[in-house]
Amino acid sequence: MNALQRLGQIALNLLERWGHGAIFFLELLQAVPASLRRFGLVVQQIHAIGNRSLVIILASGLSVGFVLALQMYYALTTYGAAESLGLIVNLALVRELGPVVAALLFAGRAGTSLTAEIGLMKAGEQIAAMELMAIDPRARVLAPRFLAGIISMPILAALFSAIGILGAYVVAVLLIGIDAGNFWSIQQSGVDVWRDVGNGVVKSMVFGVICTAVALYQGYETEATPEGVAYATTRTVVTASLGVLAMDFILTALMFSTP
Questions:
Q1: pTM of the predicted model, to two decimals?
Q2: What are the tens digits of pLDDT across the range 15-37?
Q3: What are the residue boundaries of the structural domains of the chain, listed by start?
Q4: Pair 241, 104: CB distance under 8 Å
Q5: pLDDT at site 258
Q6: End-to-end alpha-carbon separation of the chain, Å?
Q7: By the 8 A CB rule, do 139 and 31 touch?
Q8: Which of 1, 60, 66, 154 could covalently link to 204 via disulfide, CB atoms 3.0 to 4.6 Å apart?
Q9: pLDDT tens digit string along 213-242?
Q10: CA Rg value for the chain
């Protein structure tokens, strides 16, 4: 097999995987209405996915707020614009850092958990048992987790941004000595609810779809072996993270390219 044949085979395999993933995603969307009739399952998964990710989200948001305030203060004082610190920190968090960093953390914590859980269910033949009992595993197992990820991600991103702004307040006002009234007032006047906060929420919802769908797909299609589950969790983090970063660029270009 020459180089051209190998390249063509790689392209065909890639297209096959993408097509299989697209079909899986469409089938998952078709199962969502059935899972809404059992919303208690979705609530349980919101607790398992969202609540258990809360500690790392809050700790990371606080740390990012601390560092961002320090770095921005040192940069802004050079140009005599230290009074704009609150606005820059707010916009950086609600537009970019909140949704993106929260999504990467979500993929690393909740995404791997979902993949391992579904993969172990498949390895233990629980998925096959459901199919034998005429129970659709997509509606009973996958769709509630999918909805829970979409609901949890914007909440986690909002909490990340909020605790980050609070961390920036601690550094800027309590440690550096910037006027507290100026810190908050410039945010109220410079941050638009729909353009800035709203677009950040939309981003986080899209990231929630990407992270959760990738995690469920990798878990559902993994080989029913310990090694297969281990490889699937690794692929979840890599694929979801790359998908989030690529989609962030696309959404930013669409949302903020025009004034």
A1: 0.88
A2: 878 887 788 888 888 888 888 88
A3: 38-256
A4: yes
A5: 56
A6: 53
A7: yes
A8: 154
A9: 999 999 888 877 777 888 888 889 999 999
A10: 21
Neighbours of 61 (CB within 10 A): 27
CB 135 within 8 A of CB 202: no
Per-residue H/E/C for the chain? CCHHHHHHHHHHHHHHHHHHHHHHHHHHHHHHHHHHCCHHHHHHHHHHHCHHHHHHHHHHHHHHHHHHHHHHHHHHHHCCCHHHHHHHHHHHHHHHHHHHHHHHHHHHHHHHHHHHHHHHHHHCCHHHHHHHCCCCHHHHHHHHHHHHHHHHHHHHHHHHHHHHHHHHHHHHHHHHCCCHHHHHHHHHHHCCHHHHHHHHHHHHHHHHHHHHHHHHHHHHCCCCCHHHHHHHHHHHHHHHHHHHHHHHHHHHHHHHCCC
Give the sign of the dihedral formed by CA 24, CA 153, CA 103, CA 231: negative
| Amino acid identity, position 73 | Y
Single out the residue of 166, 117, 172, 165 nearest to residue 145, CA to CA: 117
- In one letter, which amino acid is 119? G
The letter for the amino acid at 97 is L
Residues 65, 172 contacting (CB under 8 angstroms): no
Mean pLDDT of 70-76: 87
Q: What is the pLDDT of residue 66?
A: 92
